[in-house]
Amino acid sequence: MQGGSLTFALIGLLFGVWLVGAGYAIWTGLAMRRRARASLRQTAKLSRLMETAPAVPVIVRGDGKLEASERFCLMFGLTKLPPTMNELLAELAVGGAQSGWQNLSAFVRETQRTGKSAICRLSLDGSPRRFMAKISLADAQIYPNGAAMLWFFDLTDTVREIERLEDESQSARNAFQALAGLIEAAPLPMWHRGPDYRLNFVNKAYVDAVEAQDGEQVVADEIELIETVNGKSPFAFAAEAQETKVPCERLVSATIDGKRRQLRVYDIPMGDIGVGGLAVDMQDLSDARADIRRQSEAQRNLLDKMSAGVAQFAGDRSLSFANLPFQRIFNFPEDWLSEKPEFARVLERMRENSRMPEVRDFPEWRAERETWFRMAVPVEENWLLPDGTHLRLVAQPTPDGGLLLIFEDRTEQAQLASARDTLLRVRTATFDNLFEAVSVFSSDGRLSIWNKRFAQIWTLEEETYLATHPRFDEMLPLLGNSLEKASHVSILRELLQMTITTRQPRRSKIAFKDGRVFQMSTVPLPDGNALLAMLDISDGVQIEQALRDRNAALSEADAIKGRFLANMSYEFRTPLTSISGFAELLRQGIAGELNPQAQEYVEAIAKSADRLSQQINSVLDFTQGEAGALPVVRKPVDVADFVKTVADSFAERLSQNGSTLALDIKPNAGIVMGDSQRLRQALSSIIDNALEHGGKNVRLLVHAAGDRNSATIIVSDNGPGMTAQKQALAFDTFTRSQSAAERSTREGNNAMGLGLPLARKLVELHEGRLELESQPGQGTTVAIQLPRNAKAA
């Protein structure tokens, strides 16, 4: 029983142990199942992760065999995986990519031998795709024979992005370098301030402006270009721009190259990197604006002084300027123009004032004129106003979109043009009817104008020859056929050439075969041409020759007359001296006592002999004066003394004639250099002439005065005076009109008509002047002017 119980106990125990073991096995199996499922899930995840990983793994065993997924074949376009590395290289390593794959093979062998990792870039021939292989030693527990683990990455997109970024980077570097070069070479001072608002970069223009050596010195010494303005430093302006994030602009003055210049300064916020700045030199612009203002004012002042009307319209078509002639031409009130009316309104006001041309459709006409504002070229028109005024209009578009109108009053020019046309017609008619032959030759010697007389004199056809405007050289052979000597045609050539060359008038004569003689004259014209005029002087030449012959005969007759008078005067002296001597002897009683009647006869004979002697002396003096041989002894002569002496010599004759002589001698009469005898003779002849022509009871006045240069003696009477015809003959020898009775009663020089001519001759010998003034019924005045110091002295 005990053995059975023990057996049952053992069996129970075994069964319990088995049961426990079975339970444990079941529990362990279930746990392993759970772990297997987790491993499968993890493997699936890893497999999925490997499929989607950016890298494709490849195992290269020690014997060169490959292990890879289908993804590797898809990556390189392989239909199947080559079994070994050499076959893979043989299939992929072709063309330009061969060196990359050979490097891959070398890197694999190096890694398998040394365990050193490597990276190799790869590409496919003819494909833009790019790859990278990362080579390392595989896990020795999995691949104990020294396998290499290759991770292939497809870098096509990455390489492209890198290349793009590299291109952008290079472009950015180039742009930065260009910008930096531009800033450095910019003529404007430019700078950059860091976050602390201190200078850290300036360009060359800044360095030159502050007269520093280089930019490093400017930054190190913190040399500021802009001065503090109203207590605000450049740092404050930069800080304000940085805080407000808005560029700060201001106009300041600075000293550049020793000169004060106006600068427009900009502080530009640039975020965290600081503040940029630049300065624009506005001095030239300011000066230019001032010049423009001055020029505009000067232009407007000039336009106000112009005779043409000027009106300027702004870009909005309003009137901006109108000068005084414009107001006058169109009758515009000044206050209305000051309102700056528009262009259309100005045209309407012109129409209201009847100061524009008459048109049918005014709105259309006005619209056409409004298009002037948009035209690129000036427009010119002629306006005929209802009152007959002619206006020339020039419409000039201005760059600002405005319009400048200039109205020139050409009424006078139109009238002058009409008058000119009339004058041209008159000139043509006159030209063709001149007695002179006229022709005009241009500077090149070509005939341009001629009249009918020119063609007739030279017997040239106008329509067939002259109308072709031949050259003067071509005409010379034809002109020579009409001349007395054909060689004289050279005279014509020289006249015309000298006139054209020297621009001086020339004159000559030329004879024709038919005996005609022409006076030729060439005159330079203002336009560079030369005028040839020919006047027929044949009759004048004949008359001139006749006058020459007559003049020669008259000269010879005058010489004969002079010789005759001289000879006769000398011949008369011998018997006249005898008569005077015998008369004087009879008067002294040499021949006995004479009765009163005989005594009277002797006195008459002596008196007549004296008169005859005086006349002979006058004739001799006059003939010697005409011949320039009359002797004159020049000594100081007191004018007052010789005038009184002459007046006293006429005392007896004045009393017999019932005439009077008054003297008016001024203290300044003074002294002259001359021959006292000749001067007394001249004054005596004048007084004698006044007594002879004045008749009875003549009143004479002798006035003597002078200045520092000359002395003047004036003899005036109240006689009958002289007509203009008698005045013309007063100084002609022996031609003064007188009757026989007058000649018989006159005494002295005036009996022969030598009084005034002899007086003038004597005065002229003293370098003086004698003048006569007389009117019928108002007496006669004779003035003698004698120089103080004559040339002959």
TrEMBL record:
Q: Which residues form a coiled coil?
A: 155-182
What does UniProt give as GO cellular component?
A: plasma membrane
Identify a single GO molecular function assigned to this protein.
Answer: phosphorelay sensor kinase activity
EC category name: transferase
Question: Organism's domain of life?
Answer: Bacteria
Q: Which SUPFAM superfamilies match?
A: ATPase domain of HSP90 chaperone/DNA topoisomerase II/histidine kinase, Homodimeric domain of signal transducing histidine kinase, PYP-like sensor domain (PAS domain)
Q: Which reaction does it catalyse?
A: ATP + protein L-histidine = ADP + protein N-phospho-L-histidine
SMART domains, per the entry: HATPase_c (SM00387), HisKA (SM00388)
Spans through the membrane:
6-27
Q: Which protein is depicted?
A: histidine kinase
Its source organism is: Sphingorhabdus pulchriflava
What keywords is this UniProt entry annotated with? Coiled coil, Kinase, Membrane, Phosphoprotein, Transferase, Transmembrane, Transmembrane helix
**Enzyme Commission number(s) of this protein:** 2.7.13.3
Report whether Phosphoprotein shows up as a keyword of the record: yes
Q: Where is the Histidine kinase domain?
A: 567-790
Instruction: List the InterPro entries hit by this protein, alphabetically.
Output: HATPase_C_sf (IPR036890), HATPase_dom (IPR003594), His_kinase_dom (IPR005467), HisK_dim/P_dom (IPR003661), HisK_dim/P_sf (IPR036097), PAS-like_dom_sf (IPR035965), Sig_transdc_His_kin-like_C (IPR004358)
What PANTHER family has UniProt attached to this entry? Answer: OSMOSENSING HISTIDINE PROTEIN KINASE SLN1, TWO-COMPONENT HISTIDINE PROTEIN KINASE
Keyword Kinase in record? yes
